[in-house]
Amino acid sequence: MARALPLDQDRAGERRAIDFSNQGAVTCGLRDAVGPLRPRVAVSPYGFALVLGDDRVLLGRLRKAALAGDPEALAEEVMEPGPSTNRPDASVAKLLAKLQERELTTAILTDPEGRLLGVVRRADLEAAG
């Protein structure tokens, strides 16, 4: 799956992180003001917005605290740069263990070039187990 290659045949029937991916995360560009993002994040299943560059490359994350500040602030000024990401072909068991160990509720999936593919919720992985 990475770089558009097929999955390893030994694991072809195994569910992967991408199978639980959701495209519903709020996204914005570097030059977007954070004020208009607040209501979108408030109704999102996630407590953050993702900052994307050209070709949907993930550049950063805006947590609720950043969104609660100056509504005229630009995303690039208040974002958390380079959030941790995961590959879409990660096994469900390994990704779930990682989220549980680090007490995280979500995992961001990107391709090898850093393009956003979606977000996986820990609760969805636990429910599938």
Quaternary organisation:
single chain
CATH topology: CBS-domain
Q: What is the element string, with H for helices and E for strands?
A: EHEEHHEHEEH
| CATH architecture assignment name | Roll
CATH level 4 superfamily:
CBS-domain
Structural domain tally? 1
List keywords for this structure.
129 residues, globular, CBS-domain, four-stranded mixed β-sheet, two-stranded antiparallel ribbon, 5 helices, alpha+beta, 6 strands, disordered N terminus, 24% helix
Q: What does this entry show, briefly?
A:
The chain has a single domain, classed as Roll (CBS-domain), CATH 3.10.580.10. Helix content is 24%, strand content 21%.
Task: Explain how this protein is built.
This protein has 129 residues and is α+β, with helices and mostly antiparallel strands. The protein has one domain: Roll (CBS-domain). 24% of the residues lie in helices and 21% in strands. The protein contains 5 helices and 6 strands; from the N terminus they run βαββααβαββα. It has helices at residues 37-42, 64-67, 75-78, 92-101, 122-128, and strands spanning 26-28, 48-52, 58-63, 80-81, 106-110, 116-121. It has a 4-stranded mixed β-sheet with strand order 1-2-3-4. The chain has a two-stranded antiparallel sheet with strand order 5-6. It is globular and about 45 Å long. The model is unreliable at 1-7 (pLDDT under 50).
Topology:
Elements: E1 26-28, H1 37-42, E2 48-52, E3 58-63, H2 64-67, H3 75-78, E4 80-81, H4 92-101, E5 106-110, E6 116-121, H5 122-128
Parallel strand pairs: 1-2
Antiparallel strand pairs: 2-3, 3-4, 5-6
